Fold each of these.
Amino acid sequence: MSRQHVQVPVSSPRLLASAIGMALTATSAVQLAHAAEDTDAKTTGKSIALDATSITGEAQEAQSYQVQKASSPKYTAPLVDTPRSVTVIPQQVLKDTNATNLQDALRTVSGITFGAGEGGNPQGDRPIIRGFDAQGDTYLDGVRDTGAQTREIFDIESIEVSKGPNSTFGGRGAAGGSLNLVSKQPKENDFLDAGFTYGSDQTRRYTLDVNRKFLDTAAFRLNLMSHEQNVSGRDSINYDRWGVAPSLTFGLGTPTRVNFSYYHMESNDLPDSGIPYGYGSNSATAVHVHDKPTDGGDSNNFYGLKDRDFRKTRADISTISFEHDLNDTMTVKNTLRHGSSGQDYILTQPDDSQHNVNRFGTVWRRANARVSTTETTTNQTDLFGEFNLAGFKNNYSTGIEITREESKVTGYTFANPANSNPGATSPGGAGCQVGESNGGTCTSLSDPNPNDAYTGTISRNYAGTKTTADTRAIYAFDTIELDPQWLLNLGARYDSFDTKANNTTTGKTKNDSNFWTWQAGVVFKPTENGSIYTSFATSATPPGAMLNEGSDGNPLTAGNSTLASDLEPETTKNYEVGTKWDLFHDRLSLTGAIFRTEKTNTRVLTSSNTYTNAGESRVDGVELSASGKITEKWQLFANYSYLKSELVDPGLVGRNGAVTVGAVSQKGNEMPNVPKNSASIWTTYELMPKVTIGGGAFYVGEVYGDTANTVYVPSYTRYDAMASYKLNKNVDFQVNVQNLTDKVYYDKAYAAHFANQAAGRTVLFSTNFHF
């Protein structure tokens, strides 16, 4: 078997990161031994850092789950006065829940599900917010982070989830909302945080966060991570990654600040191949009718091939930001960033399309493959502050963005052995039979063997598609205080988005889109700590918005002369009414919203090989949330979402441009991956100054995997628990039990063939040092 991979070496750097982490942890232990002897003698005013958050005082009180203002200057008012739904996951929630990646973190926010990837739709985080795919709507410190990735959070301070159409804030896409990851930056106080986590299924995680002020106005910060684990309740699967993130800031505490930062992360995994859907009928011509995944009687079953499957990823992000206070009320900031991400994988898709699952109790191991790289260079200039005009106070933010993005997608060619695509019409009509000379391409549904040898050959295929995009945009936001009780929030953005797709075989296609997006809201403040608002916002999704790096409903098909398409931007509108209150001496934030999101002008099939922008989908919903302290010892982070989705006009049913004759209309169906009800609650209570306990429950209702509503994953409730103990101000211990009841459930639904199963019960023991 012959393979060629993208050069993403993992083992040596990961071992180096582990060695560094272990050495620093050992150093911390020595310091701890000395610190423990004279803890009482130390001054109580010393600044201590807990997970990169500065804390003053010996008690090390837990940081609040409440966040009162978003990090981006584009939010020109505190969250209580912002007329849209915004949820911020703070560092303390990430720590208490022991989240290690983006999907872990977003579990605490209702109304978000995840879709599954395969080959054409790449592996990586695919969050679906309020029913709309947000795979391309992730930002890092306010700048778009392009490219399909599975994101780590070892260098993340908080995560801001903005719900509802959000193109005004970040540009194209964001029909259901967007995510902004806030990175850890150098601070003015020295600290060292080191931690290691040991857990079930050979989980080993080491982290280091060290900050040093080396000049009066300059500081350096370094974050390191090494992580390896198997997966509870799943055979064979393993994840292995490491990362480093240094940053340097000059001008701390002065009017002029310059920051240099770099982020690097690599992974090398044997990924989960998922669980196939089963047919309700064992007919050779059966179609799915409300069918769910079937694991053959053992939820541990893994249908991939150790001999063939792998996934390697890397991400490199370099940033230079310059910020200057022109005066007390005006600041200019320029951010220059170059990012590069890539992934290389061969993944088994447990394919049910040949009807082997129910007819013969076997699974076809269909290979999905992808080699992709994405390069992004962005320069973003922001001017923000406040001024008074005609007696009205204005908090404003305006800016210019220039971005160049380029994606290259290629893959592998498989020369499979005979009978490697087994269907009901295979020789003798026997289908996919275990024991036949199929070279490992077939396995048993109830007893798969991941150690089967794959006897086919694999060669690197450099033919593929290169997609480039140029963005030029200008935007402005303003919150106008008409009087102390009435606020007017306005925002507008103009984008010029030019994209080109060039396929090695089919040729070139290009599209130039120019569009405005808007937002407007009126806020009434009956009291200082509360608001009632109504708002309107839009988004636009032009052709090729995903750069071939995600599930694109409005794709730019390279050089395909057989397809005719309008190539117009899809548009989304959101109408929302809500209220926000800060209660209990402003310690606890409560929010509620009722909304309607309408996506119109969607690209739909209207006749064979003809697409027009004539479709429509809609989501009506209600959202509630609470975050902060109920008492000084009791913290709460909770939310609930009700989402009623509908394909109002989905066009004709088809595949690859061909209309499916006789297919049942999908008009009126529910949208994929949209649960009607979902809820998340996480709470902690400080039993005594050194002991805290906590727990959570996460519910997601049944979701369909496809627009035909023929395959689904059942609803589930997952329970988590935690307890922590502070030995002293320098060391603490924490235990987390995730999926306490060992619930078997699925957290990603693919439109056809399979769904991804979540991890079973996982126990994690963490030790953290702070100096």
Amino acid sequence: MRKTLTLTLCSFILLSCATSQTASKKKTKNNTAQVKTQPSKKSNEKIKDYDKVITKEAISDEGLFDVHLVGEKYYFEIPMTYLNTDMLLVSRFSKLPSNLGGGYVNAGTKTNTRMINWERFKDKILIKEKSSSAVAADSLPINVSVKSNNYEPTLYAFDIAAFSKDSSAVVIDVTSFYGSDVKAISGLSSRLRSTYKVKNLDKSRSFINSVKSFPENIEVIQDFTYNASNPPVNTGDETISIQMNQSMILLPETPMQPRLYDDRVGWFTLSKYDYSSEELKSDRKTYLRRWKLIPKDIEAYNRGELVEPVKPIVYYLDPATPMKFRSYMKEGIELWQKAFEAAGFKNAIIAKDPPTKEEDPDFSPEDIRYSVVRYVASTTRNATGPSVSDPRSGEIIESDIIWYHNHLRSYRNRYLLETGAANPLARTLNTPDEEIGEMMKMVIAHEVGHTLGLPHNMSASYAYDVESYRDGAFTQKYGIAATIMDYARYNYIAQPGDENIRFVRQLGPYDEYAINYGYRYIDGAKSADDEKAILNGWVMEKADNPIYKFGGRGSYDPTAQTEDIGNNSIKASTYGLKNLKIVAKNLPSWTSDQTDNYEDLEELYGEMLSVWSRYIGHVVTHVGGVVEEIKNPSQGGMVYNPVSKTYQKSAIQWLHKNAFETPTWLIDKSILQNINYAGYTDRIRSLQSRHLNNVLHFERLGRLIDHNAMDANSYSALEMLRDIRSGIWSEVDSGLNVSVFRRNLQRVYLDAMANLMTKDLDPNRSRQYYNVNQSDVRALVRGELNIVKRMLTSASKTNVNTETKYHYRDGIERINLILDPK
């Protein structure tokens, strides 16, 4: 008995010693997991003694896993306590050739994000990709079925090379994993491999650059060279070289408490199916993607005091950022501090310059520990705000904002075109630094909003009355949209003579509302369901105020359009076109007269046509438009409401006057004949064609047919087709000659009607919500074409010029071919 006790005590002491040596790494999750991962006696001669694998020559780096470099081989020493533990594996480009993947792939671009576990199977260690999209409580029988029907793939299998001396860790050789072309972590997708005709990885020109281990993450840099017969930069060497960064980070042992999504408040989300639900189905639950913010002093926070978070959101600037832009970028990031104050936090988001080598020798923009505003040397004109989140809870753990070098040129151009009539500061190619800085600050703020979890909210500018944009006091206080997350960049409504106008967007009241919804700490809530009533209360409190509306999910909603401002598109676009005509007259004097070349004039003229097209498009959307009001049944009223008949008819008449009548003010000889030798008439045809085809579209007709079936007094498809016909063919009734621009447009009409007669909804671009061939569409189009044919037959006999007469006869033949292809 005493002997047994002694042996037991000795075993206990040995176990305690082994445990204490790994305690600093991580707490053991449970005893069962610990027992399962303990090594058995060697059953394979491949497993060697530790000293024979990790020799005295090893260069070691302690961290999440101890990393050892022995000769040219890299080894991971994985503590047993980290087996079956959730981690995130993030792959991204560190360096790449120009134009790889098009304009939106750059240094810092993520190519893969996977949740993984390191698992032991016999004498191997596996990397298993884990999924959290289907879940069930461990205590329930259905959990067995969830696991069986969601079996995770094995990304890689490693032979166990050795065990640590105290058997608390397992050693594996990771050289082949990080040194080979493993598709799971590769930067070259199947599409890119096909595009560039990639043959294979050239191992003689590929290597592991470095492996660094930190307390919660491991960073690996790989240099890969591929043989490719069609590389993006073709210098004759048939080669693609890229540098990849692989980040592996330990996820929190206890996932952040998720917050339920409400589609009345815009948010980036993740969804999962909960099979623990008492519903008679798998219960789909959707949660917000957000940073984890907890007040340092919860009692003070609950008293309504502003409190700093335990861990603030910190953004670093890229070391490549030009010095003259750094202050604007930091200001743009920290503009969100005011929004977080609405959620009870102060200093919740902080911007920092990149650390020096002395301050942080390990700093790297690719390191997953750092959120960075990346400054990319690229001709792309854009900025983006991606992030990385914990797939179990939605907790954002890192994000990289991408700023492309040429982006400010787009903002300068649009500033000149959209505000130049009323804004003297915009009438130059050399926009003042202060104005450029303000634009940059707001673009960064917009992208930061994305990284905080906020998607675009295209309804926000509709909250403001059109005439308010001409009020200096209003625009200075409220900006030009209720949120920075709308695509409402400039105030194009303000007219010459309006005073103290703000022309550039800014954060608005919706931003504070949304941040409060996503980030206010709710003390005492033990689960996402515990918060539901409180969250609903916040939404209901603001439900009737358009400032707090979220929208923009469908192209059918005219109140949620991109690049528009104001609550009446006809009035707003009328003001916009009035300003654009002033700009058009002055464009040469603001550009080529100053530079003594036509490069900028050509660029800005092309962009001016795009501005014109946007203003026209905002009105087109009202025809067959449906206003979406996201609401719960308890709020009453309909979710989807067609635009009124009166407004739709007004929109068609406005389009005839401003889009389909030839915009002669855009046909300026002093511009066109200095930037191109031909193509003048077709450029106008192309602009008008886009919008006429958009009006005469299957989906628009289908919605009008639906609306008229529900309400006989609504604007019908027949009325719309008649209104379009009377305007497009107005010269027929008046007996006037038809200009070349109008002849082109009338042929566009005939081609559009031919499509309606012979084609169908594009399954790749449209929702197939009705059968065109068995609907009224063909009958209505056939009837309209027969009327046009009779009109042209009669008009071709009148006293019009030869071009018009030939045009009418050609139109008759085209209609005959449409109605009778034989």
Amino acid sequence: MRRLFTFFVLIGFLTASAAWAQSGMPLGKRLEQLSQEIGAHELRNPPRDNVDIERAGKRALRERGQSRLYGLWRVLYAYKSNQIPGRFEAWATQAREAARRDHDPALAALADLEATAYRHETHGYRAFTDADWRRFMEQSGPDIRRMAGIERVRHLGQVGRWAQAARLAADLTTDLEKRGRIAQPLLAELHQVHSYTLSDIGDKEGALDHMAQAARLDERDAFYVRKIERIYDIAYTAAELGELDAAERFAALHHHMTTTDGDKDLRTWDRFLCARIAARRETPARVLACLEPAAADLAHPVGRLQVLMLAQRALAHAQLGQAAAARADLERLKAVPEALAPRDPHAEALIDAYIDQAEGRGAEAFRKLDAWRKTDSVEAERAHQRSVAEMSSALDSELRAKRDESRRLTEEVRLSRSLARASVVIAVLLGILVAGGVAWAVHQRRASRRLKKAQQRAEAASQAKSSFLAVMSHELRTPLNGMLGLAQALRAGPVTPEQREQVDLIMDSGDTLLVLLNDILDLSKIEAGKLEIAPTVGDIVQTCARLVGGYQPTAREKGVDLAFKLESSPPGLLMFDGVRVRQCLTNLVSNALKFTTHGKVQVSLACYPMDASPQDGGKMRVRLRVSDTGIGMNDATVAKLFSPFTQADASTTRNFGGTGLGLNITRRLVEMMRGEISVESEEGRGSIFTIEMMVDPAEPSDIPVWEDDANEDEGGGFVALQGRRVLVVDDHPVNRRVIRLFLEPFACELVEAENGQQALDALAAQPMDIVLMDVNMPVMDGLEATRRLRRDPRFARLPVIALTADVMSAQIKTCLEAGCDAHVAKPIDLRNLLSAMDRCLARGAARELAAGFGAL
């Protein structure tokens, strides 16, 4: 039954495909139907920066034989046809390297073929020699002959040998249809190229037929830029046929897709198409409007397309009476080198005649226009006489192909009649299918309801998990704040060596708990898709060097040599997420030190530019490598290394501790930063972890003006804190006690409040210099208290620092939007708190000083 159903679907598809060829349908209606079909398959989220081509190329490089050959042909042909030089050269180089490495002569021939074809299309169709055609069409194997055949059809059409082009296209079509799916992209391109020949010999409707077949062949898996070119060709041909309304519909779709893609070269083709349709409508003002965005490129044309656009603009200027602009464009046209584009004296004569008319030399203009018309007539007659035989032969080849297609349609009609004679059986089978379809629909509806309920339960569970993590984060951080805060205060006071050792043990245990809590929260945010990468301007060399320096005491204590090495020239300022880079490097360095009992750990950094091409935009490739001489790993351990909650074996957890989350989080963060992480390891010899990622260079407008931190010296003196009146708002007495111990050395006067309402009352009763505001409190929380405080003009500039155990980005953003000047996470780090207070107070003092000068 399933086979019969599939058979009916196939018959329906063949019937729909034949509908385009119905001779009774008007051309305008056929174009409208085609525009609706193509528009219906337009991608809603199209790929940017040709990522679909790049992905296909990487996939092809992993293949071998014909799969690699045909896959790389698609990539090279797409970049060649759309004239994207940087990416074309990069992939041609990769193809040659693969051919040399694997001794693949067909792949080497493909790279040479497409490189020659690229020069051929961009230099006036003069790059191929007879020796080239013999090599590719006769000496390089059947696959290369098929690929070269498409280039040969295009070349023959361009030089006016239409009969040969049509015969070769017919033979290639039969051959490619036999090859099946692997050759389907070649067949689509052959239809496209053959349509150019038919258009040249005057069979515009036949050309549109072939363009429609090309569009239907690859509408599902063609590259986005190829879809754009299909639409361009249909729009251009419709304009040549005089179907200008249809041409503008396709041009509007082309404009939308090129704008979405963002490629500069595609936008140039879009402007040329716009100007061409405007010229066909005889609206020179519209021609100028279409070409206005390309003014900078037309000042110094470097491609054949830009030369054609310059000629369009010159003629439009002249037709509008703008003689000076037209003459300037005409001089640029005459200065174009012959190697770039051949001179067109006929077009130049027409522009010159219109210039004379614009400058008031009517008689001279009339004479030149009359001479132009006579020359045009003579040239047209010569071209007609020269090409009658070619056109007749070409049309004969096309008619022969159409007769073959007609025979296929006749067979389909015969099959349809046979099916009609079995109508009773078909009706019974259709009835069974309908009954089965109804039963299936009922089953699917029930399954859909069950799936929807399961989805709702899953979303509720996910929400509950997020809420649970937020609550647990807050609840765990509150006691940790008390424990670590009191330990920091004890360590800062006078203690005996034995007591200091005990305090250090408390600090280490608390830090271990904090690392575990942060890992679990990061993993949950990554899995929920809520963790974002936020690149900022920074010095990656200093970032890595400072982090490695922070681990030197640990390395010295273990007797391990820890070193940092820059293996390239300094890259300057870059755009990267410093927090996440430090987190990844911290995980790798701490692991290296953990599993290395003697020897050395080395961290090396190298930064070098990507391939110099317009598509790379000056990106830098950053390589971070952490090598150690530790215990190493076998292949089985390496294979499962980056899985969550996974360590080498049970003895690893017993001997070294840890949860197995760090490397999994590191891998995911690196992938989010457009990079990848790899590992090389040998049991008993050590391991090498390598991170490679792409970063953007810092633009001058992105480089921040750093604040002056001169008030904060290395010894920990914070001048702005001395003798300040501080309002501490927190419902937990231990937290208030910790802050009091932190601020005692600075002779600060502390006022305490247990909730937001008490804080507002305290501020109304006496002036304060700064407020340390907890967020989650009874009666009135810290956010509401801050909002009310900011609405009072007396406290508009009062520094407020949020102290909260909520560390998720959305919660931090909420604190800042409520009016807080800064955020310090619990458990509170002494240095972080003092730095934040010092900055806020120093900025407040600077603002007051500026306001005083303004008043003067």
Amino acid sequence: MNPTDLFTLPFGALTNEHVTVVGGKNASLGELYNRLTPQGVRVPDGFATTAAAYGRFLEVNHLPEPLAQLLARIDPETFEGLQEAGAEARALVQAAQLPNDVAQAVRVAYRELCAGRAADVQVAVRSSATAEDLPTASFAGQHDSFLNVRGEAAVLAAVQRCYVSLFNDRAIKYRLQHGFDHLRVALSAGVQLMVRSDLASAGVAFTIEPETGHEQLIYLTGSWGLGENVVQGAVNPDEFYLFKPTVRRGGRALVSKKLGDKAQTMRYAPEDDAGGQALRNTDTPAAKRQQYVLRDAEVEQLGRWCLLIEEHYGLPMDVEWAQDGLTGELFIVQARPETIHHGRRELRLHEYHLTEKAPVLAAGKAVGSQIASGVARILASPAEGHRLQPGDILVADSTSPDWNVVLKKAAVIVTNKGGRTSHAAIVARELGLSAVVGTHDATEQIQDGQLITVSCAEGDEGRVYAGRLAWTETEIDLETVPRPRTKPLLILADPARALQLARYPSQGVGLMRMEFVINNAIRIHPMALVEFDKLQDAAARAEIEQLTARYPSKPEYFVDQLSQAIGFVAACFYPRPVIVRLSDFKTNEYAGLLGGRQFEPAEENPMLGFRGASRYYSPQYREGFRLECEALRRVREGMGLSNVKAMIPFCRTVEEGRKVVALMQEFGLRRSGPDGLEIYVMAEIPSNVILAAEFAEVFDGFSIGSNDLTQLTLGLDRDSAIVSPLFDERNAAVKQLLAQVIRAAHASGRPIGLCGQAPSDYPDFARFLVAQGIDSISFTPDALLTGMRNMAEAEQALAAALTPAPATALPV
């Protein structure tokens, strides 16, 4: 037999069936090269030394007996003597000589690898261990690899150093802990063409989302230089999410990307005495930190390769990729099964109960159900936001959209003013926080810097206690939550929570608020981007230039950021519907965006002014609305997320509805065909109820906005503390309108749902809506489970009421 065939095997001859011959890592590399290269996946070529070559090395150098004696001195329980025995064992192996036949086989294989390429090509030499009688044993991470090795002598030296690494202290300890016989474990050295990612970038991809196990997403990360920084978590890398069904269809699958700081770049240091190169981290230049390591097309290519690898192996995979800085080519350099998730992990939620009491400093309406302790930080305005540290409890008179960045740092929010529909309450729910609103005097009764406990776990009233109190926390198994026939949907604003919330037992998203994305991620008034050349605010111009620096045009910044946010949410919930409400800022809120004041009128009552549908077709905002529509079109047609539906807020007249729908069609949003866009309208103005049949001719469905409908029915300002006690969705006038619009929608064959807090707060209100036959109810995440229970109980009560009593026999 040719010694080359006995002691080395090319990747083209290896598959996963050769684990006992070349170890798991090299068998996997061979499988990739052999099976995936014909499908277009680029894998660096190479060869592997065999277990027989390692056995020959031990035999010729008479190493088995002295190695066995040395390793027998180590206490298998306490590991006493490990360092001394390991050092002597490594010295023995390093001092030995590669047998001539093994060395010649490696030389021949290396020359064949160099054939047709530059002489003495650079290679990576990696260790791959195996046990013949335990072929499934994993020795991942126990042994050494050597990068950028060049020339026959250096390759031979690196192969022997791989043999030496079999006796690293960590590898010896690993074998002792797992009961492996040291001399029955063999070492194979994989010699693979070097990808010069030190001159470009490298990273890791998972074919499922690694935190939640979401099966429809591919998660990819990357940083400049060698991939070790990413693998070891030493840098904050760029992140990319791809929607797997669109990858499969060959469409634009990149739904979200996030720029990492990539503070360090791992490169090669000067050559060491073995011909390889040591590694060193250098500071990444500022310009490269602000640049993505991959172009969108390259991310898409890696996504296609990852999907092919997953489909070939038939299970989720952990994939390492690298880009060659000399050629610009992308490569897959390793793939292994993903070991954390076997399907999605079960989601458990938590309930809280105080076990101690203390003086109540302030009380108000409870938002959420959590208990938290922390330092109180009293802030007069967002300008003092720097005083709030992560984990502090924010105490303020009230909040507005200007506070959003500050609120994200808070553990809990406490305000003097506001009710359940105030800005502080809404944002707290969207951020997954608890809040106590409408306390009247929290800023007076609580001292800045005081340690307090805030409880929203005691019913309708939220309380602020002095000191740090004890509480208990109980897990809830979602399998025990009843599933009502009425569809439970979610209200969602922050896309960052989509992965977590997609695991809740909802049937989709009934309301995704576009304003949150515009206010927090985009931050710029759309018209300031469309008419940037006319923008007069010099400070705003400078900040906008900085935010949009990576984009070919100012409007593209808006479309890209918005489409990523919507696309990510839609991908997380796919195929469940996601209803996106188009922007519903009031003029004072729009004016607060960068460059916004120049494009917004000053109104006495913005709540009833230039908002919703009226803005969209107005010459003052028409081109801004075009950007919103382009983002939706990109999500649905480019990303393939046809589960996205659009919703028009505050549409006062039927004619106004027709104008907006026609404008959306003009802006490229197609309604015809099996995957055509469905457009809903908010039923939040009495005119929407009175003319519901006419609105149903224009729109595909209704969503009741109970907050605005209650406000406009009762003629009160829902943010006014003076009249807030009158705000009640259960008022007879409001309920009459609700019943009327539900009947009209169904008579027109249109679905209708409701977005609001009341069905979770008030079981009687949930019973009313179920009795009227409403199709869905949308809840904030903190209220979903309570709302589902209320709906299920309402359905049971309704069924019992409709069931005729059993007949009784008449007396004879």
